[in-house]
Amino acid sequence: MPTSVPRYDLETLLRDDVPYGDLTTEALGIGAAPGQMQFVARDRMVLALAEEAAALIALTGCKVDLLAASGKVLENGSPILRAEGAAAGLLRSWKVAQTLIEIWSGVATEAQAIVRAARTVNPDIAVACTRKNVPGAKQFAVAAVKAGGAIMHRLGLSETILVFPEHRAFLGDMPLAAVAERLRRSAPEKRLVIEVTSIEQAVAAAVAGFDVIQAEKFPAADIEALVRRVGAMAALQIRPIIAAAGGVNAQNAAAYAAAGADLLVTSAPYLARPCDVQVRITPASAAA
């Protein structure tokens, strides 16, 4: 089954949890006993990292049947996967695979909630999740965000140009037009994005030629005012994309969409409560 995470990284997760063997299973002498393991949703959830969890279990020598794909909405009681194999493999992979699904399904579920809320108002609006995820877990975050129907805002500093006020602090009083010109000379194939904290800054950035204006912590009413003002600027050759960022969540996404934002930028899914996955492990004779 295809996964978005390389085999080596899944092996690393197993090594981290079971670096020198499963002491309890070995001490009990039950490792060779055949058994069966089932994962079942206890919450309504958008499933994420199911393929990776199944591949991780398979690394321990178990046969795995994946019963639901990442991105699917599951109800309480919906089956996720079933595995068969020696108790040693089942018990070794159990918690790592369960936690992988629970944490990242929580992210996917919250991402979908934001997407759904925004698209009830504007079916074409995009929801982008930031790079403010757990360091070292970016590949899992990306997979979960996609499972929830959102996209990634930027994958890292090497990917896109985004000018923050913290950058401008080192530029003195350099006009925004000169900043944009410098960036276009240095990276002519890249779009220019800038974060602003006021409507006046946003208008100045639009005049300077920035492609995307990221409005940080603007109330929805200010986004609406900005969209209206930029739309009325006849001198602009191309209207910049207006991105609402900072504090965007499932409760206010519809308001930002109604205000006219083209893009919602959020970190909220990364703070979501993990979903609940029930795991049943039984001897093969009991499972039969």
Automatic annotation (TrEMBL):
Q: Could you tell me the keywords of this UniProt record?
A: Glycosyltransferase, Transferase
> Is Glycosyltransferase among the key words of this record?
yes
- One of the Pfam families matching this protein, by short name: QRPTase_N
Task: List, for all copies, the residue spans of the domain called Quinolinate phosphoribosyl transferase N-terminal.
Answer: 22-103
Domain named Quinolinate phosphoribosyl transferase C-terminal is located at 107-279
Q: What InterPro entries does its record include?
A: Aldolase_TIM, ModD, NadC/ModD, Nicotinate_pribotase-like_C, Quinolinate_PRibosylTase_N_sf, Quinolinate_PRibosylTrfase_C, Quinolinate_PRibosylTrfase_N
Family statement = Belongs to the NadC/ModD family.
Annotated NCBIfam families: modD (TIGR01334)
Protein name as it appears in the record: Putative pyrophosphorylase ModD
Q: Which gene encodes it?
A: modD
